[in-house]
Amino acid sequence: xxxxxxxxxxxxxxxxxxxxxxxxxxxxxxxxxxxxxxxxxxxxxxxxxxxxxxxxxxxxxxxxxxxxxxxxxxxxxxxxxxxxxxxxxxxxxxxxxxxxxxxxxxxxxxxxxxxxxxxxxxxxxxxxxxxxxxxxxxxxxxxxxxxxxxxxxxxxxxxxxxxxxxxxxxxxxxxxxxxxxxxxxxxxxxxxxxxxxxxxxxxxxxxxxxxxxxxxxxxxxxxxxxxxxxxxxxxxxxxxxxxxxxxxxxxxxxxxxxxxxxxxxxxxxxxxxxxxxxxxxxxxxxxxxxxxxxxxxxxxxxxxxxxxxxxxxxxxxxxxxxxxxxxxxxxxxxxxxxxxxxxxxxxxxxx
Length: 351
What we know:
Blueprint: H1 14-27, H2 32-46, H3 52-59, H4 70-80, H5 86-94, H6 104-109, E1 112-116, H7 127-136, E2 141-144, H8 159-175, E3 181-189, H9 200-203, E4 208-212, H10 221-233, E5 239-240, H11 262-272, E6 275-279, H12 289-298, E7 302-305, H13 317-326, H14 340-348
Parallel strand pairs: 1-2, 2-3, 3-4, 4-5, 5-6, 6-7
Helix pairs in contact: 1-2, 1-4, 1-5, 10-11, 11-12
């Protein structure tokens, strides 16, 4: 069950305080440069030998450490002195309610997230930090879906890099001893002809595949429809990601939705047991309401995903939960409400 992270109270250790500040800043979509300062500071002090941080605080040399500035040193000092850092208190006072009210019951019913990114592609944090935050926010499972090779701007994973990542994902899941499951996945590009931007052999090693269009979004409707239907028919695909490709707000500006025959695409999804993603990122809000209703009418499954590129963005599923609740989507048709065994059984049927 996904839940809001409870507010921290004093005393709090400095690493936890810095991590929580970064999480809350990401949650409210603050600038990445400022957020990175707190995450780097947490990494720096967590690597220190026992006792060194306290000794530096006493000596006034905390800011001599690499990546520690006035603001992060202030947080560290207040935490070491048994106080709740003022910066953290302010963020908690103004950033603890559900990001989007209206879908509280469905939000609480979500067990996992099938679309997330790490710094292996265009995410901002290591896999371990994404997992730790998922555990802290009550997730039972999460699928790591970094990008595929064609998306070079996002450092998409080659066969070699994906092979290394798979080994790390398996090791993390094994270390958590059944308390949390990190699943092997990918957000694979749908190429112009509907084929997938990764080898069949590599896709066969994954637990779940999200397929998305990232290129030639203004392709004419007929070839775009053929392209998407071909991808959905591929037995390795489990979820159709942000299907219209639109952007409705945010720093990247706006972008109109792609032209395609939505009925034909969603009928293919229903026929081949592929879930339609309800992408929760506010800048995407994809698909629009009328297409969610069309997919519901056709009988599609859905996947409410965060498409998180940073730990604090995992909470964005509240936006998707509100939309699905408002539009009357049956929670049992949403694969991210399922437990990990049911999810794996469903995803594995197509392989």
